[in-house]
Specification:
By secondary structure, the protein is α+β, with helices and mostly antiparallel strands. The chain has 2 domains: 6-170, Alpha-Beta Complex (Nucleoside Triphosphate Pyrophosphohydrolase), CATH 3.90.79; 182-329, Aminopeptidase (3-Layer(aba) Sandwich). It has helices at 81-93, 144-152, 162-169, 194-204, 214-229, 269-278, 300-308; strands at residues 10-14, 20-26, 37-45, 51-56, 67-68, 71-74, 106-110, 113-121, 136-142, 173-174, 180-181, 184-188, 233-238, 241-249, 254-260, 287-292, 312-319, 322-329. The strands form 5 sheets. A 7-stranded mixed β-sheet has the order 12-13-14-15-16-18-17. A hairpin with a 5-residue loop joins strand 10 and strand 11 (180-181). It starts with 9 loop residues before the first strand and ends with a strand. InterPro entries: Acyl_CoA_acyltransferase, GNAT_dom, NUDIX_hydrolase-like_dom_sf, NUDIX_hydrolase_dom.
Length: 332
């Protein structure tokens, strides 16, 4: 990629629907109404979730001497978004990235165009970077607190979403609904999780005998509060949203309730919660759980899961007037 001189830089012109018009626009000239161009930013985070930031040269037009995210610039004519991002990183930092299989993490609209933001996870030795002296004064790694301090001090470009960038940098992949591969956390529930927990219960209540009525839901709520106080409630979180729930009894060495949000299944959520639960139960005693009997359509997935986790079918039982079966994880 050959650097383009600013006075020679041409941009592709887009419609408001981000369709190329076939026209080009010379940088520095005023854009016509209804014409737009493409800008890209690359935000590089290391494994400590620190953001690589650059200080712009004091003689640079546009936010001179200010600290900015890792890289940013306009796409030149002929470049698609990924190519433009690769070009800017190479020109400003001397770093080669392959973004051919990566889509922008999000896009911000502005008055004259579209601004694509790429979130990249990469540990980089900044001593090996080759900075573009015409644009970049220096670079450094900063955490969330320091970045926000710099912004409040008036020395960082005032991105209103700067704080949120660190949330995105702390995950691997995500989509518009917030589903984040690698960003799901498992831990003991707190009272802050209660409302979201009960929202999930509302979604899955048809699969749990006893939760068909409002009285049953209220009783469950009281049980949840008690279990949280005693650290016997485990949940999986996507951000602040509860996506998996598990109640267990230390006294009886058993699982009381286990459920996963329908849109978060097949992500090892249930097995991760059970692994955490096992650290609190007595491995010298059998661990039990009651689930649906064989032949009950509601129990196909749950029975298969417990067998996968090493539980074996045990005696037939009845729970809240519903036919169930006890599964046992044998003591060591």
């Amino acid at each position: 990629m050959v650097p383009v001189k600013l006075e020679e830089e041409l941009w592709d012109v887009y419609t408001k629907d981000r369709v190329k018009t076939g026209k080009t626009h010379r940088r520095g000239d005023k854009m016509e109404k209804g014409e737009y161009h493409l800008v890209v930013h690359v935000c590089i985070f290391n494994s400590k979730n620190q953001l690589l930031i650059q200080q712009r040269q004091p003689f640079k037009k546009g936010w001179p001497n200010m600290w900015d995210v890792s890289v940013g610039g306009s796409a030149v004519a002929g470049d698609d978004s990924g190519q433009a991002a690769e070009r800017e990183v190479l020109e400003e930092l001397g770093l080669k990235l392959d973004l051919s299989e990566k889509r922008p993490s999000f896009t911000m609209n502005f008055s004259d165009g579209f601004d694509d933001y790429y979130i990249v996870k990469k540990d980089i030795d900044i001593g090996n970077l080759h900075l573009q002296n015409a644009e970049v004064k220096q670079v450094k790694w900063v955490g969330r607190e320091e970045a926000l301090r710099m912004q409040n001090a008036g020395i960082m470009v005032p991105y209103w979403f700067l704080d949120k960038l660190f949330d995105l940098g702390d995950i691997h992949e995500f989509d518009a609904h917030g589903n984040r591969e690698g960003g799901l956390t498992v831990g003991f529930a707190s009272f802050e999780n209660v409302e979201s927990w009960m929202s999930l219960v509302e979604i899955v209540r048809d699969n749990f005998p006893g939760l068909e009525t409002n009285e049953g839901i209220e009783e469950y709520y009281q049980t949840l509060i008690k279990n949280i106080k005693e650290e016997r409630a485990i949940c999986t979180l996507d951000g602040n949203m509860v996506t998996g729930i598990l109640l267990f009894s230390v006294k009886h060495n058993m699982i009381g309730c286990l459920a996963v949000h329908p849109e978060y299944r097949r992500k090892n959520i249930a097995s991760r919660m059970i692994e955490l639960m096992l650290t609190k139960l007595d491995s010298n005693r059998d661990i039990s759980v009651e689930t649906f009997r064989e032949g009950d359509e509601k129990g196909i997935a749950s029975r298969a899961f417990y067998i996968y986790m090493g539980f074996v079918p045990g005696e037939l039982t009845v729970s809240l007037n519903y036919p169930t079966q006890r599964f046992i994880l044998k003591s060591k």
